Amino acid sequence: MSEQITGRTAAEIADSVRELRERGVLAPGTLLPPVRELAARLGVNRNTTVAAYRQLSQAGIVVSRGRAGTMLVEHDAVAQEGYASDTVLRDVGTGNPDPALIPDPSTVLSKVSGRPVLYGEPVIDPALDAWAREWMSADLPAEDFRITVTSGAVDAVERLLAQALMRDDAVALEDPCFLASIHTVRLGGYRAVAVPVDEEGMTVDGLRAALADGVRAIICTPRAQNPTGASLSPTRAAALREVLAAHPYVLVIEDDHFSMLSERPYESLISPTHRRFALVRSVSKFLGPDMCLAVAATDPETADRLAMRLSPGTTWVSHLLQRLALAMLTDDAARATIRSAAAHYAARNTAFAERLRARGIPAEHVDGMNLWVRLPRPAREVSEHLMRRGWLVRTGDGFVLEDKTAPSHHIRLTVHDLGEEDADQLVADIAAAVG
């Protein structure tokens, strides 16, 4: 392969690799020649080859695997949340909220009216900013923070990483991990470092190892972690803050996606002295995914950088949407619906876990929209059995970061909208599938 790469300068070598990839001569996943070997064949200085590989890395064409070499990037499809398309099966892996438990926006539309907002005006509605500051300050240890409004939590995380990192920078992710976080880190060209999650959230040893590996950002779900439902305990949160005390400039992003629906108190990795942080709360789970709005509370420097990426005329969030979200979040009837939804998800998931335990399958609802169920058999085998019985479940394989060669023994179920008869049938079919 090294014989096909040509060039005398870094730019020429990088262009040669790009052309070979575009022509299909070099396939995704191919390892490029070692720097010293390629430099010797081309008759150039080793630093020239290093610079060429750096250009390719910054362009997202290759990724460095350390001693394992430099590899052409593989853009594998990443699983997405939501309903599966083109299937006649009953989908119980969607991760969706119940549409019947999302407040009706038409009841507050009259409160949304106001004068048009023009270019050059503040990008955040003043009333929403004031409300969000009060909402966030109750759980954010830092006193000096600013509010930014984005088009959902995924948009917030993508912008937060982009303003702080370069390609190949390391990002600590929970393992198993939220699908959108995996997708965001992969598309951004960052290197994911897995931090195991147990029943109390991120593990201390896992975070310590990730920091030793040079992570520049950490994405954590303090409660209702997706997919496991785990929430940080006070003891675990304190231990994690102690580890982070020596790394105040590592960006800590807390994704509190379940916020108003959660049964658990909020525990934070962010200490009062931490310098780079963001607490992100989306309204998607309780006002609906189509609302596409999230609030981020960040340190002032991060807020300034985010503001540059949300300037008027580019990508600021519609003030009409901001006013609508605020009207719903402050409406008594809407808030009552959100409280009913929280009770519904908890009750239905708890009841389904009890059904599974009655069949000898260990399961417990901790918090969140879904159930994370450990199986005695590989999840793919169980999934195939359930498909023959008319069910489509989501296996744990897509959520795993570390050892993807070992089959997952978990399935994630979204069952809060099942009736009693359907719930009984699904439990019976799962029990039959695991033998």
Characteristic terms for this protein:
alpha/beta; Arc Repressor Mutant, subunit A; Aspartate Aminotransferase, domain 1; eight-stranded mixed sheet; three-stranded antiparallel sheet; 15 strands; globular; Aminotransferase_I/II_large; WH_DNA-bd_sf
Task: Please describe the topology of this protein.
Elements: H1 10-22, H2 35-42, H3 46-58, E1 62-64, E2 70-72, E3 90-91, H4 126-137, E4 146-150, H5 153-164, E5 170-175, H6 179-187, E6 191-198, E7 201-202, H7 204-212, E8 215-220, H8 234-244, E9 251-255, E10 277-282, H9 284-287, E11 294-298, H10 300-308, H11 319-329, H12 332-358, E12 371-374, H13 379-388, E13 391-392, E14 394-395, E15 410-413, H14 420-434
Parallel strand pairs: 3-13, 5-6, 5-8, 8-9, 9-10
Antiparallel strand pairs: 1-2, 4-11, 6-7, 10-11, 12-15, 14-15
Helix pairs in contact: 1-3, 2-3, 5-6, 7-8, 13-14
GO molecular function: DNA binding; DNA-binding transcription factor activity; pyridoxal phosphate binding
Pfam family, one: GntR
Protein name: DNA-binding transcriptional MocR family regulator
Structural description of this entry:
By secondary structure, the chain is α/β, with parallel strands linked by helices. It folds into three domains: 2-72, Arc Repressor Mutant, subunit A; 90-98 and 334-434, Alpha-Beta Complex (Aspartate Aminotransferase, domain 1); 115-330, Type I PLP-dependent aspartate aminotransferase-like (Major domain) (Aspartate Aminotransferase, domain 2), CATH 3.40.640.10. 37% of the residues lie in helices and 14% in strands. The strands form four sheets. Strands 4-11-10-9-8-5-6-7 form an eight-stranded mixed sheet, sandwiched between helices. A three-stranded antiparallel sheet has the order 12-15-14, covered by helices on one side. A hairpin with a 5-residue loop joins strand 1 (62-64) and strand 2. Helix 5 (153-164) runs parallel beside helix 6 and helix 13 (379-388) crosses helix 14 (420-434). It is globular.
